[in-house]
Amino acid sequence: xxxxxxxxxxxxxxxxxxxxxxxxxxxxxxxxxxxxGTAAAQTAPAKRNQSAFVLSIDVPNVxxxxxxxxxxxxVGINPIAALPAxxxxxxxxxxxxxxxxxxxxxxxxxxxxxIDGLALLQAKVPPNMQGKSEVTxxxxxxxxxxxxxxxxxxxxxxxxxIAPANDGAxxxxxAPSPKPAKRSAAPVPPPRGVSEDATIQAQRLLERGNTxxxxxxxxxxxxxxxxxxELGSAEAAMALAATYDAWExxxxxxxxxxxxxxxxxxxxxxxxxxxASAAIERxxxxxxx
Length: 289
Known about the structure:
Elements: H1 2-10, H2 13-51, E1 56-58, E2 62-65, E3 70-72, E4 76-78, E5 88-92, E6 99-100, E7 104-107, E8 110-114, E9 122-124, E10 131-140, E11 146-156, E12 162-163, E13 172-173, H3 196-214, H4 218-230, H5 234-242, H6 246-251, H7 261-273, H8 279-285
Helix pairs in contact: 3-4, 4-5, 5-7, 7-8
């Protein structure tokens, strides 16, 4: 009987074909996931390695320009090969009136720049501008994710204060060379007719004003210094003029304060009237009217 059954199966070729198909179907789920698992294991490290790149922005610590000039905005991205597609750079904190040669102004002092526009990017500085601003360079992905960030001080100063760059080095800001024999540390004596009490009060106001300057409170400092000038303090007039002087603001590392050459000239002239000889040099380096 058994032999007859076996011969019966052999006599049915379609039965063998059906068994072969069923065996292949049952075996397929056991082998295919293993193949996909191997592929996933091979591609996952590649994705992890790609995301492991840390992007950085290379910008100079100080960008120097003179009024009415075009200044290169040197921006480097490393490694550029890891930059996601359609990324862009936002430049924020430029002084009012400064225009860039590429990109779009998205807010006052803020620009969105395409990556392919960075190589020739320049800043157009309007005439009669002086001062110092902190500029932030932020690299964004198309989804709005921050990829890297850098900061520079954007300084606009008269041509005579900018030393030209040599051999590709960065230009620097220099003060006029003082005369070696000249000593300005000694306090300026009060003018005639000023009482001792007024002099003491003016000195206290001057000290409080200088404290306000160091704390970054220019409005408070100017108010105190003006009162000291009314009491005849030439030093207070010099300090007050410096809060409007682009070079002095840059030297003091004061950010976000708009210089005013006319008010600087007014208070330096007043300091000269009160006996401050150092005001002569400061007046000479202010931009011409």
